[in-house]
Amino acid sequence: MKTKNIMIVGVGGQGSLLASKLLGKLLLTRGYDVKVSEVHGMSQRGGSVVTYVRYGERVCSPVIDEGEADFIVSFELLEAARWTKFLRPGGKIVTNTQNINPMPVITGAAEYPAELVKKMEEAGIDVDAFDALSLAEKAGSSKAVNLVLMGRLSKYFDFSEAEWMQAIDASVPAKFKEMNERAFALGADA
Predict the structure, then answer these.
(1) CATH number of the domain within which 99 lies
(2) What is the residue-level pLDDT of the chain in tens, covering all 190 positions?
């Protein structure tokens, strides 16, 4: 099997590391060789972060180069646009439509770009954009955006719901299990 590559991008504090670990556990249950990177970027709330998940028969490195990502899962719209050069031809971006202003926008030195989904689609990028934040809040917490996005990503894989639930159970504390399962289901059904 050819190695598959998933980038998870967002802003620090959104739960991208948990999403990466969950995906890694899920892929390991299928017997894939899996490499999950550490967080690259500023992990404190507000900084841009990226993690890599690579899987296949044999994976030598956790790093994804430009033009190699099969999927980019983005917690924030500008982060989706920022990493498009890493998407391979025919790849897909699954993104939350939430806007989180970066420092240049906060200080007034720049404006948040308008119509990012439209611009990415006009550039020939396959974008699955939706309001994951509202679904996370419906599930019980704005912090559940990561599980909403994993639910949406699950539509593009042939793993059973039971396999996803097993990975969730192995990745989240028991007291948050029910809320995270709700968030995943809302993302999968959106």
Answers:
(1) 3.40.920.10
(2) 799 999 999 887 677 889 999 999 999 999 999 999 976 665 555 677 899 999 999 999 999 999 999 999 999 999 999 999 999 999 999 999 999 888 888 899 999 999 999 999 999 999 999 999 999 999 999 999 999 999 999 999 999 999 999 999 999 999 999 999 999 999 999 8
pTM tops 0.90:
yes
Domain count, the chain: 1
Q: Encode the chain in three state secondary structure.
A: CCCEEEEEEEECCCCHHHHHHHHHHHHHHCCCEEEECCCEECCCCCCEEEEEEEEECCCCCCCCCCCCEEEEEECCHHHHHHCHHHEEEEEEEEEECCCCCCHHHHCCCCCCCCCHHHHHHHCCCEEEEECHHHHHHHHCCHHHHHHHHHHHHHCCCCCCHHHHHHHHHHHCCHHHHHHHHHHHHHHHHC
Domain carrying residue 10? 4-189
